[in-house]
Amino acid sequence: MAVNKTVNKRTNSHGAIRNCIxxxxxxxxxxxxxxxxxxPYPHEEINYNLVYRTFLEEKKLWNKDSGRMYxxxxxxxxxxxxxxxxxxxxxxxEFAENWFSGFQTLVAVHKDKNHIRCxxxxxxxxxEDGRKLHNTKKDLERMKQLTNQMCRERxxxxxxxxxxxxxxxxxKGEVIAWSKDKYNLFRQQVKDSFVAxxxxxxxxxxxxxxxxxxxxxxxxxxxxxxxxxxxRKHITFQNQAxxxxxxxxxxxxxxxxxxxxxxxxxxxxxxxxxWGYLTVIFFSLLQNGAFQRDVLKFITIPINWGKEYIAxxxxxEYISNTAGEMLFKGFFSMFxxxxxILGSVCLVWAGVEQYKKIWDDLYKMVxxxxxxxxxxxxxxxxxxxxxxxxLVILLINTGxxxxxxxxxKKYC
Length: 412
Prior knowledge:
13 helices
């Protein structure tokens, strides 16, 4: 039983024809003795690079190095067919010389599986007159007839509709598929497979159906919608559950997009008002004299301390009795200053890290409110309380943190 299949893949690029020739001539699938090129071929050796270059030179000779580059056919025999690789090779050569007469054709036999296959890769440009290769649906039917005729002449099995390889009749309801994977899928009734479920539903529906309407009704009971064209050329099935799931997924996606759009709009509005409010606070702080003086004091106090230290350090030479004592006091004071600066930095850094962990909208609101409070009422506060406004802001935020920690520990 020989099946002649035309491989329908993308064939309009140099890379496609090169890859196809390379695959057909792979050493792990064939050998040099079972490879042949019909038509003009100037090389003694057959390898994919030489065959590719020969096909390409023929195209350029006729100025037709574009469009469809090649045709790929596979003639395969049933695993129980009594045919040798050599006989399959001669079969392929004869078929190529008859059907693809006037076209260069690479013929090679693959025998790496339990059945024999003969690959034919044909140049799409004729070496006789430069015409392009073209096969219609009727040509494909004639190709099948030629293949069957060649099988009869050699005493090989011929494909018969409705029969197995051994000639026995295919029973009604038996699932047949040329694809081995599909065949095993149907036979084993693999769970969670829509293809297998559909096949089994069709078989069950056919048992008690006498017309088209009854079949469609039965399939609907099994959860499948049937789209039956008037000419019966195509019948498609759609799982109702899967259809509902897809529709639900679409609705969910639409709802998510709408919600995301609304959230983005809300964030943009929130961003606008937040920055507007912060701008008002900033200008309020600029016109607040008490706050400005407190900030200035916060900066100038450490500077004054530094100046006093420098003045004291310059007097060490007169206060100390010896140079050693003066050197010791200098190094000791420098060490203490460095330790104080490093400790302050570490303390501030640790505080920032801890504050980042608990930072949320509530603390953000308290911080902005405390700054607003100082900006608006700073002059009034300093009239009655001798406290630095920066210290007031720090006390308010620290108190909020401690109070919230206490309440959380007590009630949670």
